[in-house]
């Protein structure tokens, strides 16, 4: 998908394994591997997008798992709110904290999870999450069933287009409460980027 050359301001990234990022011209990772043949995905094979505070790096695609699950990696900047309160109609999300401190609002419950902890965010529950620490927080997100990993790809491809963003949310049966952002930021001392 070469359309990204038209949007140089987009933070399309490729992890070069040293913690630094460089721009890449494609969001497609289908060309890089066939999971039926490969068992290891190296850091150099990762493509991603930085949404400003939250980044996504695609690791395992639904097409590689019979659409049973997908895996993404989310690095988050300190005190970054990942998303407004939101509600998935179709997907469960399971987060494994690699490093840092993850905060989450699951329904009415506020939880904090340190490196090595798992957080289950079931479908049909209002929730959000954020970096609750002073350093980068990184989580591995398992999405089941697969498909929602493409949500991030489509939002990245239309970054800044609010109308397209609303269409993508409808397509993926995702509800977002944008009015929750100021209260979440005030309550937990967070920042959130503009679309």
TrEMBL record:
What is the superkingdom listed in this entry's lineage? Bacteria
Q: Which Pfam families is this protein grouped with?
A: Cupin_2
Q: Where is the Cupin type-2 domain?
A: 76-142
**By its UniProt entry, which InterPro entries does this protein fall under?**
Cupin_2 (IPR013096), QDO-like (IPR053146), RmlC-like_jellyroll (IPR014710), RmlC_Cupin_sf (IPR011051)
In its UniProt entry, what is this protein called? Cupin domain-containing protein
Give the originating organism: Desulfofustis glycolicus DSM 9705
């Amino acid at each position: 998908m070469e359309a990204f050359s038209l949007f140089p301001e987009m933070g399309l990234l490729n992890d070069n394994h040293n913690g630094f990022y460089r721009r890449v011209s494609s969001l497609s990772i289908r060309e890089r591997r066939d999971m039926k043949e490969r068992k290891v995905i190296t850091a150099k094979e990762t493509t991603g997008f930085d949404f400003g505070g939250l980044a996504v790096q695609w690791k395992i695609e639904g097409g590689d798992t019979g659409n049973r699950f997908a895996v993404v990696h989310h690095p988050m900047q300190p005190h970054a709110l990942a998303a407004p309160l939101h509600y998935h109609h179709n997907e469960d999300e399971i987060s494994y904290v690699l490093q840092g401190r993850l905060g989450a609002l699951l329904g009415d419950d506020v939880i904090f999870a340190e490196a090595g902890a798992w957080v289950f965010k079931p479908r049909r529950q209002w929730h959000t999450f954020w970096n609750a620490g002073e350093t980068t927080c990184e989580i591995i997100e398992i999405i089941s069933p697969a498909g929602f990993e493409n949500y991030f790809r489509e939002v990245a491809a239309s970054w800044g287009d609010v109308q397209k963003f609303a269409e993508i949310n409808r397509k993926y049966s995702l509800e977002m409460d944008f009015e929750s952002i100021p209260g979440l930021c005030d309550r937990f001392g967070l920042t959130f980027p503009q679309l």
